[in-house]
Structure formats: C-alpha cells, structure tokens
Structure prediction request, 72 residues.
Amino acid sequence: MKPTNSRVHLSRRVLLGTLAALPTLIPPLCLPSSSANAQTEQLPSWNDGPTKTSITDFVRRVTTRGDPRVES
Prediction:
C-alpha cells in the first residue's frame, strides 16, 4: 500500500489569487459600528475661534439644500 501524502497541493495561481483577494474581503469585517464613527464636534483638534467658526459656517451653508445664501 502507498503512503498517503496529507499535504494539500495548491497551484501558484490559486494561492496568489487568494492572497490578492484578501484585502477586499477583510476590511468590511473590521469596520466599527456606524455609531462609533459619529463625531459630535467638527474639527475637534482645532481651537475655538473666528477661523474655525468661519469654516464650519461656510461648510454648513454650502451643504444645506435650499439655503438662500447659496447660489444655485
């Protein structure tokens, strides 16, 4: 009787294809819940002041639909 070889033989193509697909398969499993991503303060590392206020007001104004101060 022949001794059986229990090793699995993979072709190089199959191995490299599997390794190439791993980065696209793993990140969705590692994402934290959406509630953990919610930020309570805009630009949290910035000091409060006129520059921060001006930027956050501008972004809020141009991203709000129907704001009369924004041209269509």
